[in-house]
Recover the amino acids of this structure.
């Protein structure tokens, strides 16, 4: 891609500083975005990417610094002003209203009017048009809450696109999109860029950055490190700039002798979600579960763990057939599940790291009556050290930690339950490269120590790097079982899209 | 093409159940009481529903915005005593206006507490409930005020269009207007958005705090109207008039199908709830059922309807592949609800 | 309020009221005084063969006003009303008059305007009870010393009458009694107990007399007194003639109470209403006798409840 | 400025104004009330008065202790308290003749606990909004209790249990002992046991707690059942000490209890709170009520003053939290 040096500067942020109690989120950050460029921003969890964008969108006020949009000063504005001045924002968390329809969501805050009333016809027409542009057949009249997460993510994007903004910020838009949706999104982004819109693209997936970005800005610890043309930088260099040191992106795969069968599922079904699923995991083994979004991977994990009911089929754990009807029974049977929706199901925001850590096992560190606080503190501190939770303050409430560190706590919480089977659903979603390496390391250690791992991930390279075997789901059915040796992006994708059926 | 999803069927069920209730009450009343099914009964049912109806109408936008207002009864008492107290000083009509204004003012205080001082609405309005109930007693020295012009308010409950009275006609019109506002105008839709997810609404450029504040002021306005109407039609301003009104008002709104969690509801449903409850009360009264037994019936009804609602729109439904994308109550919804 | 005979025309035949219907707007369904009164009304109605529908306003005049309207639109032959405040019933009473339905009030009087539309009142004279209580206290304390008033539910008609009669009579008597404090304990023993504890703490033996507007609250005060262990014996007067008060009078803890039998009150009210419906002339007020109970006659009388 | 802010219930290490306010507000408020009281009335700072204050508020205090668990577990509030208080009281006195006072009291407790358990099932297992559910059950139970006694009033026969409840041990009334005893059990139950941790977790994030193998439904239901039991206990004690009971016996207790819990600083959103703070809240509300009478304010002013204090306390707390950026 050619960098539009001839283009006007769409947006300039200078000397932005922002602190939250206890954290310096941004310090003297400069950022300049041109019209018609895709400007990527990368950085570790907590580097300040989202905060910078929220300041741009008027959600936070900077402690100091200037913002200039389209040549005009815009230092202190609110979300509405930001929007009317053409800033479109797709946040890391979905910002949609579940009880309104898709069309109403898309027009939210600026519904077309006829007289004093909402012009529903115009509104639906507009929504249909934008959704068509995004290549999806979501009905504009559907209640938003009835859509799947990836569909909601598309609506979120449609909502911003529909407003025809001059600057669009994508804050990790692909973290809950599958490959197919990602392709569509990239097409949309390219079209927008070609129309002269300035685009800011935040992602932890460096491959995406390399693919779609024109320039990239690296943030580290709330400071601006460097802005470079994407053409002139390699992923390794980017990682080095982000973490300030060399780092191999992936944990080196250990070759371990596989042990006893830890888990075997036979003929597992749940109406409308998955059908006749048979798979197994052995000790020391990391088994991947691949598939397109909506292929039923999460539901299998939930049913295994007892969060949903398994309608048919048997589960055998270490040779024993078990019935698991609740997470409690799941834990008792030696299963742990790191859920995909960290904010919704992983963490208790108001509780401290310590209390989050010991939640599933709290009855194990309790005598007849009381919790052994000393012992609790000890095992928690040890685990926090092992996982490099940063900052290492276990009495701090979990909600003030960055996403990656929250994820480590969720992982640690389940490691403390000493499971024989660890199920991971998108364990590195929204997690930066450094933390991702840490997490892979922890998973590897767990397998090394004799546990079995069932890992769901939408990032194929991650699965390929980490797993010994991969089961591929297609519309709730196991389409293929692929060994490490045979697993390539192509073979997995073919199975996932239904072009290849298991023998 | 019409798109029927479960939410829509759920909404239908909500409307339907009110009709079923009204019908059941009519049959029950008709069978058990002589001359129950008359225009006079209908007039009396609608008229009796008016005061609690105004309170319930005011409560509806507050609940849609995901908040709660426990202070409606106290606002109503304050409005009532103001209306009667001021009559000799500034005249009947201005006094009625100021009465309503008192409701608006207290509503504004609620709004201030919730929006500016960020006090949870359950706590804030519990406090204003206590404060203004107490103030009403202090101001009147606990004695109900008698109007010096008891005839002035009487036309409010006179015959009007066979089945109505002037005040019940105003109530019906208000309910319809509110329905139009909520369902068909952008500001109405925005209110639903705020109740459904305030932070998402804010990031869409909606002034969520403004809407929440407005809903409290509106609730104050309607409580003011309720108090004004009540005091005029009974020619007395009682400091405890509103004390017993909170529970029937909430019950009526909820029976109508408006959720306490915000984001859903309708003023016509509230109207239905108010009428259904009023009709039931009247039928039971005509049968000489003691008030405590009536309380048992209304309580059971409330629990039953809300449980049904839960089951109809709840998360227990199994989903089929055919309806993949149209599910109710997403389990992985990214919108964990923080408040009631 | 004149006792008019012409309102009786609504009932047509002057002899038979059998099969006629009466709507009774009562104060409450569940209350130590009101419940027996309701039972009395029911008994009298059964005896006369009239159909009685009881609806309860649950202490709320506004609810009662609406029930009154609803009774009128039902077209009953007579209405018995327990007013919970002075004026709220006016519109309903006007409608009743228009419809030619006679109304009788029970236990509590409505306001002056309203009483003009009410054929008769059957019940104890609460105002008079207040006066009697003032006289009792004034006499027992020889018109000197501090007293506390434990009043009923603020704004309630009974409370208003019993307070009014009491205060007016003190003035009337030119009494030297000094009211140290007035608290509203809502005719509730627990509330009276809590308030009395504080009163006893604050005034101690300065409390020479206690005017409790019913015996339940008198009991609450006596309980607090016992707890305090202070051992002074104030003159406690109550109202209603409850069994507990009889015991306390026998034991010398309470000075007096005023007997007001509720069952009889209900009967009397229905009998009065039926008389009106028949077209008979009834007095403006059909009083329930206020009998003072003290140590001299406590063993000869039956408690009211 | 760049200081770490600890949550409200974990303050020892923190020195920001908000945290300081949260820690010290209750003791300061109590001290302030005591000072005002001693200045206002010589009879305030007497053993007798203070015992009375506590005694009068012990019964409703029990309800507040239960309500703490309801709020912490994200159950908002239990509005069926008056009904369960009435049930406890009426059953105790109503069944006295039939089964004897001891068994009758036990029966009263049982019935109230069942009432609470019904709330628990509706709220915990059916996941109905607590305000609606308890409004409904409150209505039903209060109606039933009135039906039970046919309206009116039930009296107690003289009995040993009542005498005991009315007596004092070491100069302190039994009611106070009961309150202190229950508080001493419930405080560690919330702060130091798995059940308490579950309550905090369920109130903090229901679905995450569920996915962490916390018995979420049971926890929520238990909080309500417990409040039902304590409301019943409140009713039993009131009935025994008063020697009579009426259906309106617990009217308004739900508000008093909520007020005490909220003044104590427990969040209505759930996820944090402490029993000790509620005890502080009970003391504060009790002292306010006492002062109003001692200062000679009309008793109708109680609501005004309590309401204003609730607004002030919660408002200032919310202000500091917002300043600390974690509202
Ligand atoms: N509202 C807040 N209150 C306190 N601290 C906050 C708040 N928002 C962000 N922070 C802190 O500011 C820092 C920057 O956070 P930010 O969310 O901008 O990071 P990020 O680069 O977007 O990370 P991620 O990749 O995990 O999304 C982090 O340390 C975070 O904990
Ligand atoms: N929150 C949700 N609400 C409604 N339906 C959902 C939700 N999440 C998933 N689904 C639906 O459930 C089915 C299986 O989804 P599941 O989450 O198991 O897929 P997955 O392969 O894990 O995909 P993902 O990458 O999104 O987690 C799909 O039809 C999907 O649309
Ligand atoms: Mg971010
Ligand atoms: Mg998934």
């Amino acid at each position: 891609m050619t960098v539009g040096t001839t283009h006007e500067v769409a947006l300039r942020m200078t000397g932005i500083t922002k602190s939250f109690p206890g954290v310096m989120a941004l310090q003297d950050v400069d950022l300049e975005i041109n019209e018609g460029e895709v400007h990527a921003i990368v950085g570790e969890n907590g580097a300040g990417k989202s905060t910078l964008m929220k300041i741009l969108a008027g959600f936070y006020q900077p402690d100091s610094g200037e913002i200039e949009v389209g040549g005009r000063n815009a230092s202190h504005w609110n979300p509405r002003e930001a929007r009317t001045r053409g800033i479109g924002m797709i946040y890391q968390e979905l910002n949609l209203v579940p009880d309104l329809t898709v069309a109403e969501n898309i027009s939210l805050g600026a519904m077309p009017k006829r007289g004093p009333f909402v012009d529903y016809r115009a509104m639906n027409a507009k929504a249909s048009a934008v959704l068509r542009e995004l290549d999806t057949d979501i009905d504009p009249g559907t209640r938003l809450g009835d859509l799947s997460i990836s569909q909601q993510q598309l609506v979120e994007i449609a909502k911003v696109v529909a407003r025809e903004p001059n600057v669009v910020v994508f804050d990790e838009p692909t973290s809950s999109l599958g490959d197919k949706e990602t392709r569509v999104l990239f097409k949309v982004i390219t079209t927008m860029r070609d129309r002269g819109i300035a685009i800011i693209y935040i992602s932890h997936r460096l491959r995406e950055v390399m693919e779609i970005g024109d320039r990239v800005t690296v943030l580290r610890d709330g400071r601006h490190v460097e802005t470079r043309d994407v053409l002139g930088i390699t992923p390794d260099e980017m990682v080095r700039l982000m973490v300030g040191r060399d780092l191999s992106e992936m944990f080196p795969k250990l070759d371990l002798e596989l042990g006893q069968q830890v888990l075997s599922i036979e003929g597992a079904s749940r109406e409308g979600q998955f059908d006749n699923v048979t798979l197994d995991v052995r000790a020391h083994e990391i088994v991947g579960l691949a598939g397109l979004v909506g292929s039923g991977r999460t539901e299998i994990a939930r049913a295994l763990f007892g969060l949903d009911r398994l309608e048919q089929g048997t589960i055998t754990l270490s040779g024993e057939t078990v019935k698991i009807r609740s997470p409690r029974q799941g834990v008792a049977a030696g299963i742990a599940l790191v859920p995909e929706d960290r904010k919704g199901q992983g963490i208790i925001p108001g509780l401290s790291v310590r209390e989050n850590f010991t939640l599933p096992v709290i009855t194990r560190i309790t005598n007849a009556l009381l919790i052994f606080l000393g012992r609790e503190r000890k095992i928690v501190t040890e685990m926090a050290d092992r996982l490099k939770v940063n900052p290492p303050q276990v009495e701090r409430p979990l909600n003030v930690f960055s996403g990656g560190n929250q994820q480590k706590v969720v992982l640690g919480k389940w490691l403390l339950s000493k499971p024989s089977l660890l199920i991971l659903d998108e364990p590195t979603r929204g997690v930066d490269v450094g933390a991702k390496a840490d997490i892979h390391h922890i998973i590897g250690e767990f397998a090394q120590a004799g546990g079995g791992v069932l890992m769901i991930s939408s990032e194929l390279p991650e699965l390929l790097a980490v797993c010994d075997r991969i089961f591929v789901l297609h519309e709730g059915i196991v389409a293929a079982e692929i060994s490490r040796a045979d697993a390539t992006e192509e073979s997995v994708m073919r199975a996932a899209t239904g072009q290849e059926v298991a023998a | 093409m019409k798109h029927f999803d479960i939410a829509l069927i759920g909404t239908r069920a909500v409307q339907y159940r009110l009709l079923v209730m009204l019908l059941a009450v009519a049959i029950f009343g008709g069978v058990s009481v002589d001359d129950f099914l008359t225009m006079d009964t209908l007039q009396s049912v609608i008229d009796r529903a008016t005061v609690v109806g105004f309170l319930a109408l005011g409560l509806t936008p507050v609940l849609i915005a995901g908040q709660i207002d426990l202070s409606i009864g106290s606002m109503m008492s304050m409005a009532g005593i103001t209306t009667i107290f001021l009559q000799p000083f500034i005249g009947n009509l201005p006094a009625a206006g100021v009465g309503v204004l008192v409701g608006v003012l207290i509503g504004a205080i609620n709004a201030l507490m919730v929006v500016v001082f960020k006090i949870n609405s359950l706590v804030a309005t519990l406090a204003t409930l206590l404060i203004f109930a107490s103030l009403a007693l202090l101001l009147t020295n606990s004695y109900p005020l008698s109007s010096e012009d008891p005839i002035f308010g009487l036309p409010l409950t006179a015959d009007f269009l066979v089945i109505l009275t002037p005040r019940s006609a105003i109530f019906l019109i208000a309910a319809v207007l509110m329905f139009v506002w909520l369902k068909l105008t952008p500001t109405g839709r925005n209110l639903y958005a705020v109740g459904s997810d305030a932070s998402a609404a804010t990031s869409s450029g909606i002034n969520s705090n403004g809407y929440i504040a407005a809903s409290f002021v509106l609730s104050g306005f309607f409580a003011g109207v309720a108090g004004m109407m009540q005091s005029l039609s009974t020619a007395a301003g009682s400091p405890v008039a509103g004390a017993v009104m909170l529970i029937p008002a909430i019950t009526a709104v909820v029976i109508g199908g408006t959720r306490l969690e915000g984001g859903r509801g309708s003023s016509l449903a509230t109207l239905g709830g108010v009428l259904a409850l009023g009709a039931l009360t009247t039928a039971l009264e005509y049968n000489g059922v003691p008030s405590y037994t009536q309380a048992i019936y209304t309580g059971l009804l409330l629990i039953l309807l809300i449980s049904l609602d839960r089951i109809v729109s709840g998360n227990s439904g199994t989903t089929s592949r055919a309806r993949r994308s149209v599910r109710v109550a997403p389990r992985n919804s990214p919108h964990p609800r923080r408040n009631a | 309020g004149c006792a008019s005979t012409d309102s009786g025309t609504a009932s047509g035949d002057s002899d038979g009221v059998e099969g006629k219907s009466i709507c009774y707007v009562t104060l409450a369904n569940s209350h130590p005084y009101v419940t027996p009164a309701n039972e009395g009304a029911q008994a009298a109605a059964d005896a006369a063969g009239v159909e009685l529908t009881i609806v309860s306003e649950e202490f709320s005049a506004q609810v009662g006003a609406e029930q009154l309207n609803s009774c009128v639109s039902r077209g009953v032959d007579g209405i018995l009303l327990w007013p919970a405040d002075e004026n709220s019933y006016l519109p309903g009473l006007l409608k009743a008059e228009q419809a030619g339905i006679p109304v009788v009030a029970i236990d509590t009087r409505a306001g002056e305007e309203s009483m003009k539309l009410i054929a008769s009142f059957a019940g104890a004279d609460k105002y008079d009870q207040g006066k009697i209580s003032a006289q009792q206290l004034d006499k027992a304390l020889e018109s000197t010393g501090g007293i506390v008033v434990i009043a009923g539910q603020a704004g309630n008609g009974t409370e208003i009458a019993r307070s009014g009669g009491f205060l007016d009579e003190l003035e009337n008597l030119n009494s030297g009694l000094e009211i140290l404090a007035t608290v509203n304990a809502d005719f509730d023993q627990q509330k009276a107990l809590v308030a009395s504890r504080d009163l006893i703490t604050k005034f101690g033996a300065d409390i020479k007399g206690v005017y409790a507007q019913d015996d339940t609250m008198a009991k609450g005060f006596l309980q607090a007194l016992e707890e305090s262990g202070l051992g002074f014996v104030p003159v406690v007067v109550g109202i209603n003639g409850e069994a507990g008060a009889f015991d306390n009078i026998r034991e010398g803890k309470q000075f007096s109470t005023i007997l007001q039998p509720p069952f009889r009150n209900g009967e009397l009210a229905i009998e009065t209403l039926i008389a009106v419906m028949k077209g008979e002339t009834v007095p403006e007020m059909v009083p329930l006798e206020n009998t003072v109970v003290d140590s001299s006659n406590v063993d000869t009388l039956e408690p009211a409840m | 400025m760049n200081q770490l802010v600890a949550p409200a219930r974990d303050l020892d290490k923190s020195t920001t104004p908000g945290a300081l306010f949260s820690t010290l507000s209750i003791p300061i408020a109590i001290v302030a009330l005591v000072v005002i009281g001693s200045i206002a009335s010589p009879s305030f700072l007497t053993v007798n008065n203070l015992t009375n204050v506590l005694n009068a508020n012990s019964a409703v205090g029990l309800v507040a202790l239960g309500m703490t668990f309801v709020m912490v577990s994200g159950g908002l509030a239990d509005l069926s308290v008056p009904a369960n208080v009435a049930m406890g009281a009426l059953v105790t006195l109503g069944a006295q003749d039939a089964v004897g006072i001891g068994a009758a009291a036990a029966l009263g407790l049982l019935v109230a606990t069942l009432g609470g358990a019904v709330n628990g099932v509706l709220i915990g297992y059916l996941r109905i909004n607590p305000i609606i559910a308890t409004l409904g059950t409150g209505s039903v139970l209060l109606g039933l209790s009135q039906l039970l006694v046919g309206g009116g009033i039930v009296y107690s026969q003289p009995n040993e249990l009542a005498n005991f409840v009315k007596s004092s041990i070491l100069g302190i009334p039994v009611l106070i002992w009961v309150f202190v005893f229950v508080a001493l059990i419930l405080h560690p139950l919330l702060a130091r046991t798995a059940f308490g941790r579950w309550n905090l977790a369920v109130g903090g994030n229901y679905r995450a707690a569920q996915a962490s193998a916390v018995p979420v439904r049971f926890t929520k239901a238990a909080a309500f059942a417990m409040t039902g039991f304590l409301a019943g206990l409140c009713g039993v004690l009131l009935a025994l000490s008063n020697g009579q009971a009426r259906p309106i016996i617990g009217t308004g207790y739900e508000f008093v209890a909520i007020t005490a819990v909220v003044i104590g600083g427990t969040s209505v959103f759930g996820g944090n709170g402490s029993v000790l703070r509620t005890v502080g809240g009970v003391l504060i509300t009790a002292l306010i009520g006492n002062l109003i009478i001692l200062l000679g304010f009309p008793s109708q002013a109680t609501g005004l003053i309590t309401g204003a204090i609730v607004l002030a306390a919660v408002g200032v707390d919310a202000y500091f939290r917002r300043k600390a950026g974690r509202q």
User: Anything to note?
Assistant: The domain at 35-314 of chain B is CATH 1.10.3470 (ABC transporter involved in vitamin B12 uptake, BtuC).
